[in-house]
Design goal:
- This protein is α+β, with helices and mostly antiparallel strands.
- The chain has one domain.
- The chain is built from 3 helices and 13 strands; from the N terminus they run H-E-E-E-E-E-E-E-E-E-H-E-E-E-E-H.
- A hairpin with a 2-residue loop joins strand 4 (68-69) and strand 5 (72-73).
Length: 252
């Protein structure tokens, strides 16, 4: 009898521990949030742009919280559209008349780009870890370009050590080459990648503060563009051709 009680107690503690890690709703295109991931800026591809945009870029408008403090979203009114202008085009956008050019990295193919949520327990954290259960790809659609394909996680382990319903999150995105390259591999290869501004999330799912709750969505995250740390292959090719032509002339 005593052994049975001990085993039952251990199982109960284990179940409480599993629920105590807060979860989020990893979905884009929600009634209170929509964010987009854009190709690198045309004139400044090595510089990332962040901020919400309106629907003038040929995709749906962003939905976001209008109050931001020190780079972290705080509770505010949900606003449609923003003033940030992106020149690279929404990745995966195939809308007629405003489709994003393919370029060297297939910016018109959303599935060639991975998104993954990073997070840590507590507000305003600067050291975030990858949350592999919140991983997806960007959409390839005439109406959903730049947004990611939502994921429903079964037995979601949540964000580790989140016992107070508070977490900091950020969204990373990168070119996966169509073969599942990791973020580290993309960065090493000089392929396009980027990360959103961080956001504070409240009302996480799971046990959290002591009451079971449904997961909060990522409504504070803002849109952003990727960067290419090195010139794209087409630019490199043009440079090599130009240098070769110059050497050829000198030899003559």
């Amino acid at each position: 009898m005593k052994k049975t009680l001990i085993i039952s107690a251990l199982l109960l503690v284990g179940s409480l521990s599993a629920y105590s890690q807060g979860t989020v709703l990893f979905q884009d295109r929600q009634s209170d949030m929509t964010m987009h991931v854009y190709a690198p800026e045309v004139a400044t591809p090595t510089v990332e742009t962040t901020g919400q945009a309106n629907s003038a870029v040929g995709v749906t408008a962003d939905l976001y919280e209008d109050t931001v403090a020190n780079g972290f979203a705080t509770t505010g009114t949900i606003v449609t559209g923003g003033s940030t202008v992106y020149t690279g085009g929404a990745i995966g956008n195939t809308k007629s008349g405003s489709a994003t050019p393919a370029g060297a990295y297939h910016y018109n193919v959303g599935s060639d780009f991975t998104v993954e949520l990073y997070g840590a327990s507590g507000y305003n954290q600067t050291s975030l870890a990858p949350l592999s259960q919140y991983t997806s790809v960007l959409s390839t659609s005439s109406t959903q370009g730049g947004t990611f394909v939502g994921v429903s996680v079964n037995n979601d382990p949540g964000i580790p050590s989140t016992t107070g319903n508070q977490a900091t999150v950020a969204l990373y995105a990168w070119y996966n080459g169509g073969i599942g390259l990791t973020l580290a591999q993309a960065q090493t290869a000089g392929d396009p990648w980027g990360v959103s501004l961080s956001d504070n999330i409240t009302a996480l799912g799971g046990l959290g503060s002591g009451t079971l709750s449904t997961p909060e969505d990522i409504l504070g995250l803002q849109s952003f563009s990727l960067i290419t740390p090195v010139p794209e292959p087409s630019t490199i090719a043009l440079a090599v051709m130009g240098a070769s032509a110059l050497l050829f002339r000198r030899r003559k």
